[in-house]
């Protein structure tokens, strides 16, 4: 049964909107038999207690020790253009825990680069693959992961399915806040495991605050954003320009009746994000504006018929990123016989 989780150490939702109920399982409690029908419905799922399964120390100090001199590119979550800033890995990770009143919110995305993850960071790659829940779906080589069955000929555009890592500092969801990852939706299902968050002053961990909206609410969200920010040729979700701060979430609920799954993700918890569900993230640490030190990791996994829903949406878009999404999704479709599309143990009802 989906539940509404009440953890007294969670932040108070400043919008007052709350959450739709969602499914929560312990690490050993989520079997494939349980997961498959839930996932077919396009609902988010949370798995707790994964931290002990990881062997690698996913901490800022360990990244500095092993990879400190490597170059990486950081963006400021408040910069609308997301202009990359080059620096070395040590400079980024050494900022964790040394907040100096700066007004920026740095995010290190796609480090290590996805293409190099398995070859240059084999320990990280293996550790993640060995720990991730429902591995037949979520591992890159999982038998139920559609992406593992891709044709290998070079004509096929293979979508970027990760794994990839996100590291970011604390961000705000209060009015004017931009979170750490703005509202967007992906063409593949994803599972995101938080590996590290700096402790708060009372010793309990900080968390990532997820707002995930049901795929069937995307139309209402688009309508709301168009009304609010004006119509533009760019799709308001795919453009990834907007973060729904607490005022906007409240207004979305009042005007369109749309409420999402609001998940406060702690270290060792996995959040599953169905393809086609608009979602956004901010990172919270109750030590107010001090010590923003978050580290999360994401693994993108297989895609199902929900991608066809996304394809319909993105076909009408004219931006290059929308065309790229559309191309990626097209490449997932078998060219003539749609039966092969349904072979991987997932139902195909797309709502
Ligand atoms: O972990 C994050 O901050 C963002 C991950 C995410 O939203 C995505 O990759 O789609």
UniProtKB/TrEMBL annotation:
Q: Which Gene Ontology biological process is one annotated for this entry?
A: regulation of transcription by RNA polymerase II
**Keyword DNA repair appears in the UniProt entry:** no
Which InterPro entries does the record associate with it? JmjC_dom, LSDs-like
Q: Where is the JmjC domain?
A: 139-307
Stored Gene3D superfamilies: Cupin (2.60.120.650)
Among SUPFAM superfamilies, the record links this protein to:
Clavaminate synthase-like
Alphabetized UniProt keyword annotations? Metal-binding, Nucleus
Region named Disordered:
316-351
Q: Which GO terms describe its molecular function?
A: chromatin DNA binding; histone H3K9 demethylase activity; metal ion binding; transcription coregulator activity
**Stored PROSITE patterns:** JMJC
Record's compositionally biased regions (Polar residues): 328-338
Quote a single Gene Ontology cellular component term: histone deacetylase complex
Tell me which domain of life the UniProt entry assigns to the organism this sequence originates from: Eukaryota
Q: Where in the cell is it found?
A: Nucleus
The keyword Nucleus is annotated on this UniProt entry: yes
List the protein's name. JmjC domain-containing protein
Gene source species = Tulasnella calospora MUT 4182
């Amino acid at each position: 049964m989906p539940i509404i989780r009440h953890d007294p150490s969670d932040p108070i939702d400043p919008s007052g909107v709350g959450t739709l109920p969602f499914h929560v399982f312990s690490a050993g409690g989520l079997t494939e038999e349980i997961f498959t029908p839930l996932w077919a419905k396009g609902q988010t799922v949370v798995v707790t207690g994964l931290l002990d399964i990881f062997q690698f120390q996913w901490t800022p100090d360990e990244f500095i020790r092993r990879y400190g001199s490597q170059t990486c590119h950081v963006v400021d979550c408040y910069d609308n253009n997301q202009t990359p800033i080059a620096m070395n890995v040590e400079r980024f990770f050494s900022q964790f825990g040394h907040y100096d009143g700066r007004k920026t919110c740095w995010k290190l995305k796609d480090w290590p680069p996805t293409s190099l993850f398995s070859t240059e960071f084999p320990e990280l790659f293996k550790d993640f693959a060995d720990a991730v829940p429902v591995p037949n779906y979520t591992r890159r080589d999982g038998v139920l992961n559609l992406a593992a069955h891709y044709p290998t000929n070079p004509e096929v555009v293979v979508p970027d399915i990760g794994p990839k890592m996100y590291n970011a500092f604390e961000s705000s969801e209060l009015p004017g806040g931009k979170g750490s990852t703005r509202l967007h939706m992906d063409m593949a299902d994803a599972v995101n495991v938080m590996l590290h968050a700096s402790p708060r002053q009372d010793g309990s961990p900080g968390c990532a605050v997820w707002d995930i909206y049901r795929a069937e609410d995307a139309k209402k969200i688009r309508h709301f954003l168009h009304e609010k920010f004006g119509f533009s040729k760019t799709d308001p979700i795919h453009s990834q320009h907007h973060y729904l701060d607490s005022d906007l979430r409240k207004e979305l609920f009042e005007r369109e009746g749309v409420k999402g799954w609001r998940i406060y993700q702690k270290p060792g918890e996995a959040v599953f994000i169905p393809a086609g569900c608009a979602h956004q993230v901010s990172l919270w640490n109750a030590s107010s504006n001090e010590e923003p030190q978050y580290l999360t990791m994401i693994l993108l996994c297989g895609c199902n018929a929900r991608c066809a829903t996304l394809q319909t949406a993105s076909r009408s878009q004219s931006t290059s990123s929308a065309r790229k999404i559309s191309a990626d999704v097209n490449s997932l479709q078998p060219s003539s016989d749609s039966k092969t599309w349904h072979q991987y143990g997932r139902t195909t009802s797309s709502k």
